[in-house]
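Entry type: protein chain
Record version: 2
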Amino acid sequence: MRRRKPGRPRLYSNAPQMQERINSYFDACHEWEEIPTVSGLCLHLGFTDPSALKYYATASKAHAHFSKAIRRALMKIEACKAQALVDGELEPGRLRGLMFDLRVNHDWREKVSVKAEEPGNAGCGVAVIGWEKFNENWQERMLKGKA
């Protein structure tokens, strides 16, 4: 007879049971007019650590059953946050917090671009020198160092 490994039994034995709890969480968020979060979802599902949600989605033996429900829930959380960001009806502190959360928890990235301008143009841009000028400056520094 095979013995079961010691440890806490799983909270959810099947995906429809978990999906029902996930749906009740999103209904409660809609009723309370709150933005859903991953930690809120974990608390609602009865987990004490977000890593338990990740375990159900990836590492457990029954992950194939739970992963679709969990991935859809995480995507819905990201979509709700993105919609709140687009709506722009949040006060500045909550808006910054929402942007921070999307960057950290949902792998969003801000695109940063730098425009270099030639010297003598109207802006206060970066002076761009050509390879020849760089080479001349480098040779002068090298000769001064040897002398």
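Comment: The two ends are 86 Å apart (CA to CA).
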